[in-house]
Specification:
Layout lengths: L8 H13 L2 H17 L3 H17 L2 H22 L2 H12 L3 H14 L4 H18 L4 H10 L2 H4 L6 H8 L6 H8 L4 H15 L6 H11 L2 H12 L7 H21 L8 H6 L3 H23 L4 H14 L1 H19 L2 H13 L6 H16 L2 H16 L4 H21 L4 H10 L3 H29 L2 H31 L1
Helix pairs in contact: 1-2, 2-3, 2-19, 3-19, 4-7, 4-17, 4-18, 4-19, 5-7, 5-15, 6-7, 7-8, 7-24, 8-24, 8-25, 10-11, 11-23, 12-25, 12-26, 15-17, 19-24, 20-21, 20-22, 21-22, 21-23, 21-25, 22-23, 23-25, 25-26
Length: 501
């Protein structure tokens, strides 16, 4: 079964079960168990050893993974502190006066997501903690908030030259200017660009479809008084000052950026760009969030917003709030370990090289689909970059530079798309955690939006493979996106009219 299609079957089983049963933990465990059985040749002892030693223990002893879990816990504690101090409630009341409509609240969420382009994990949790009180007050569903967070996390990071994602892509390009190639690929990153256009369009035109429309209807039917009561009960009572949320978040952003460039050697002489390219996002985020947590505790204690005991009580409470996300991440990482051990990367590499010999004009579209499927099955964008980008560079580096750029971009776009759709993606899990939304509901409601943009992007990459011009192909993608939005708007209006009759 090594390096065959069977290597992708465990995550496919896990994802299918999660979507069917709406229960993510058991579904992921079944996928892990299937991967262990495949690896051991259906030997029970070998399966147990592989799942436990090369699976759970290996992923929980990986320094990168541990750093992400620590960062997640610290963010949970900070959110609990801000809630108990009344900062979240105060910000919600302040924002309600300035964002007087549902559209305004959603646009503000999108803008904040675009501004925080440094790292997708950081983006998801920060935007969620800041904007949840605002969207709750405007009766916007948690599923819609999770979509807005997810659609401005990876898609923004993958087109931002200064981000942990740019650093990751740069590291996968050997023997070339990785950052230069990344910047050249931005105009061809159609899924990321069109996702942003599509997301803004759905908000401005008030277009929702699929299960998302049902969640939005339920949220709007909820009485504003009920929302207010829920928020007061959830957030507790504090001095209700906006500074109790804004200052900790600003400190968190600055500290995390400084932590990331510190790990890249900025304070040892490296310039800002090189420091970001060489940064360790996991360690940098832990350093930054730890400093932010300490300063936040001091800030609240000095101002006597919270007592020392209340601050300490937030530590286990914040940890407990992040337990579902930690469990899902652990299972997802273990499932990826099973997939890796079965040679999924080797199988996909062979598939791509077989296609490369022919269908050259269609190759960007083919790579986009392969990257989508691989990222969807494994739940990792960066792993998909690591597999496909070196193959693309080796195929085109000496023959067709423009096609290499387009194909690299198709790889990155497809990886983000698959990551966007996958229930086992860490970014998707973080978006659910940030919005405090049921994870399976988030995946099921977001998937139709992502698939629709993916279909438009696929057509756009076919055009790009022939014309090799970023402006023309992007124009085609924009026209298709706007046309789809208008059709959805017209159909929505038609249904409303029919319902009224």
């Amino acid at each position: 079964m090594y390096a065959t299609f069977w290597a992708l079957l465990p995550p496919i089983i896990a994802i299918a079960l999660a979507l069917i049963t709406k229960e993510v933990y058991s579904s992921l465990f079944v996928g892990i168990l299937v991967g262990g059985l495949f690896f051991s040749g259906f030997n029970l002892e070998g399966t147990m050893n592989h799942v436990i030693n090369e699976g759970f223990i290996a992923v929980l002893s990986d320094s990168w993974n541990v750093g992400i879990l620590i960062f997640l816990v610290i963010l949970g504690i900070m959110v609990c502190l801000m809630n108990k101090a009344g900062g979240s409630s105060a910000f919600g009341k302040w924002a309600q006066k300035r964002f007087k409509s549902r559209i305004g609240a959603q646009i503000a969420t999108i803008l904040l997501g675009v501004v925080i382009f440094i790292d997708d994990y950081f983006n998801c949790l920060t935007v969620g903690s800041v904007m949840k009180p605002v969207t709750d007050k405007h009766n916007i569903s948690r599923e819609k908030l999770a979509y807005l967070i997810d659609a401005t996390a990876a898609p923004v990071c993958i087109i931002a030259p200064i981000s942990s994602w740019a650093a990751a892509v740069t590291g996968f390009v050997d023997g070339a200017d990785g950052l230069g190639l990344f910047i050249s690929a931005i105009p061809y990153n159609y899924y990321a660009l069109l996702t942003l256009v599509f997301m803004v369009g759905t908000v401005l035109l008030n277009v929702d479809f699929g299960s998302m429309a049902e969640y939005e209807r339920k949220a709007m039917a909820k009485a504003a008084a009920s929302v207010e009561a829920d928020l007061e009960e959830e957030l507790g009572k504090g001095k209700d000052s906006v500074i109790d949320l804004v200052l900790p978040i600003v400190v968190l952003i600055i500290a995390c950026v400084m932590g990331m460039i510190y790990t890249g050697g900025f304070f040892s002489g490296a310039n800002f760009i090189d420091a970001f390219a060489g940064s360790d996002a996991s360690v940098g985020l832990v350093i930054g969030s730890s400093i932010s947590l300490i300063l936040t505790l001091i800030f609240y204690l000095v101002r006597r917003v919270l007592s020392f005991k209340e601050c300490m009580d937030c530590i286990p409470e914040g940890f407990k709030a992040m337990v579902p996300a930690i469990l899902i991440l652990t299972f997802a990482w273990t499932l990826k370990a099973m997939t890796d051990s079965l040679g999924a990367a080797v199988y996909v590499e062979g598939v791509v090289k077989n296609y490369a010999s022919g269908f050259q004009a269609f190759l960007p579209a083919i790579i986009f689909v392969i990257a989508c499927l691989l990222a969807f099955a494994t739940g990792t964008s960066w792993g998909t970059f690591g597999i496909l980008i070196p193959i693309v560079v080796s195929i085109f580096q000496q023959t067709d530079y423009t096609m290499m750029i387009i194909s690299m971009s198709a790889c990155m776009a497809g990886a983000v798309c698959g990551d966007h759709c996958s229930p086992i993606s860490d970014t998707t899990i973080m978006a659910s955690a940030g919005a405090q939304c049921d994870h399976v509901n988030h995946v099921a409601s977001q998937m139709p939006y992502a698939i629709l943009v993916a279909a438009i992007s696929f057509v756009t990459y076919i055009v790009a493979g022939f014309v090799k011009n970023p402006v023309i192909s992007l124009a085609v993608g924009l026209i298709l996106t706007i046309a789809v939005l208008m059709v959805l708007k017209f159909n929505g209006n038609s249904r409303e009219t029919a319902g009224a009759k």
